[in-house]
Amino acid sequence: MTKYLVERARAGAVLLTPLSKGELTAWLAGQTPDRAAWVHNTGFTGAPGTICPLPGEGGALAQVLAGIDPEDALWSYAALPPKLAALARKKSRAACFVLDTAPDPAGVARAALGWALGTYVFDRYRKAAQDFAVLVWPKGVDRAAVKRICEAVFLARDLINTPASDMGPGELARAAVGLFRRHKGRSSVILGDGLLKKNYPAIHAVGRASDRKPRLIDSRWGRAGPRVTLVGKGVCFDSGGLDLKPSAGMRLMKKDMGGAAHVLGLAHMIMAAKLPLRLRVLIPAVENSVSGDAFRPGDVIATRKGLTVEVGNTDAEGRLVLADALYEADREDPDLIVDFATLTGAARVALGTALPAMFCNDDKTADAMNLHARAEDDPVWRLPLHTPYRAGLDSKVADLNNISGDSYGGAIVAALFLAEFVRPKTPWLHFDIMAWNNKGVPGRPEGGEAMGLRAVFAMIAELAAQR
Questions:
Q1: Which residues are catalytic?
Q2: Which of 128, 168, 252, 336 has its CA 20 to 30 A from that of 161?
């Protein structure tokens, strides 16, 4: 994390000069012919993530050029820590680097954050073989901001990467309670049959088949300012229930609590920044298991709102647990509700695995979200709450079905189901996310991933500042 960013240069620290392809020509023009020839002969073009070592007296490593894409600077810097560590080992030098130029404030922030994000390793079950170079903090960087972003992203990744054997509803609850206790917040947990007594019947129905009891985790922090409520899908493993997934479909289902991991990461950012707001986080934590007590296709289940739902498919369980949590979130008239959920494969078909689908019932809120996503280089893509598709959720025996009879537009239909449990007057953002990298790229290794957190935090910070 930020242990790879240090206060002072270590002995033998090397100058690191970031250059884009467009900047390289001008930089070479100011160098000696011998140095320019050296760079040319190495084949260095300023391509993102590439490096070019420059020798000094006696052939010692004096400087390193690093290729940076100005449009993707964050991840260009993320590629450097492992590469520069390997270079330093090869040259028998300290793996410590000092940034040469002084970019704009946003530029140095990207450099520090990208560097830190590029050092993530999930090492709970085996010792990490990877090592990383160290960067001296560039001047003008908000170090606290870099630290809290990295902590949030790494927390989300760690929770998602942990297998269900060690990340069930109980472990997820302990993670949430511990996080809020750390920030002097408070939490309560409604467990097992207590969900029926407290009127959370949909959460109970989905989770009752598992010997690890379902629960609703309810955490609060802050005493003044706008009310912001985060809701995260916490399905710690999804077998599909009686509509059993094939083995290939089950392989990554430890990540089905990725929505919960996201809201905990986002909550950490909010609390660490001490934003002036009243935060509430609701996580319905369950396992969708198979047993004699499992809910069945064709069952009609109750919800906290009072609407009845016919179960068209037990593998569409995430929207059921979110229904109870969203309705509870809306009861307090919050200024904003944000939910994260690994909800549909349809969103991935539409947008791929790296781009979160965003749904919103308020154009002003959606526009603000898009602005912050662009500013933070943390993309999301809005899909419509196309109300004509709502007819697909009609049921002949209940108020609605949990799936549509039509196989098209699945992400929209799922969002429309959730919209039944949030009043139109309440600004609401719903993110349908992958929460996983299928292959590793700089700063984003294969495995659990946090998506959209920086953008949502920036929007919430703006909301808090306006009140």
A1: 245, 319
A2: 336
